[in-house]
Amino acid sequence: xxxxxxxxxxxxxxxxxxxxxxxxxxxxxxxxxxxxxxxxxxxxxxxxxxxxxxxxxxxxxxxxxxxxxxxxxxxxxxxxxxxxxxxxxxxxxxxxxxxxxxxxxxxxxxxxxxxxxxxxxxxxxxxxxxxxxxxxxxxxxxxxxxxxxxxxxxxxxxxxxxxxxxxxxxxxxxxxxxxxxxxxxxxx
Length: 188
Ligand SMILES: CC(C)(COP(=O)(O)OP(=O)(O)OC[C@H]1O[C@@H](n2cnc3c(N)ncnc32)[C@H](O)[C@@H]1OP(=O)(O)O)[C@@H](O)C(=O)NCCC(=O)NCCS
Description:
- The structure is a single chain.
- By secondary structure, the chain is of the alpha+beta class.
- It has one domain (9-187): Gcn5-related N-acetyltransferase (GNAT) (Aminopeptidase), CATH 3.40.630.30.
- It has helices spanning 24-31, 34-37, 47-56, 112-127, 142-150, 179-187; strands at residues 9-11, 14-18, 68-75, 81-89, 96-103, 132-138, 154-165, 168-178.
- It has an 8-stranded mixed β-sheet, sandwiched between helices.
- β5 (96-103), α4 and β6 (132-138) form a beta-alpha-beta unit.
- α1 (24-31) crosses α3.
- The structure holds coenzyme A.
- Residues 36, 39-40, 100-103, 108-114, 135, 137, 141, 143-144, 146-147 line the site of coenzyme A.
């Protein structure tokens, strides 16, 4: 199901595009903030991390089993990169995907993440033809859980202390959404 990324995906106030060489500064700026990194896989995020993320994505395309495809979230009105979102195609079933998202704190609380992931879901279900999309959030990450519920994801699991995360046991929620559920929601 691997497919060339068709260029910027637009939706109202945001658009999603490939990572570009000039994104390193913005990536570092928001990903290095402790409140942004708190529930993410990284402890710190510096220029080298940004450069290697961008470099790794030079020839990458979405829908390749076992890989993440990370995109920039750009505010349409200003052209500024305000976050990033990622799509992982499951290695054993390319019809299933996982989502992740990170927004600069300066642009949280305005519905931008909801719009960006809505746009991504249209692409994933419509263009890539995925059957099911899931997301895993730290059980303490209330904003992230609220985001996926707002988009219509069902909470399928609450794992208790299932992961050793940043020096302590962490608990996680698993959310999922089927293509038919997304289509029904869009039609309503
Ligand atoms: C997870 C994350 C992206 C959620 O960001 P967010 O700003 O809460 O989500 P949105 O951009 O969709 O904004 C929703 C908020 O804007 C408000 N809002 C304002 N205008 C809105 C609009 N037009 N549409 C929707 N919501 C709107 C909503 O009421 C909501 O506010 P509330 O939470 O106070 O009720 C953000 O917290 C983040 O980047 N965290 C750090 C990284 C992280 O942990 N990522 C999750 C990994 S799975």
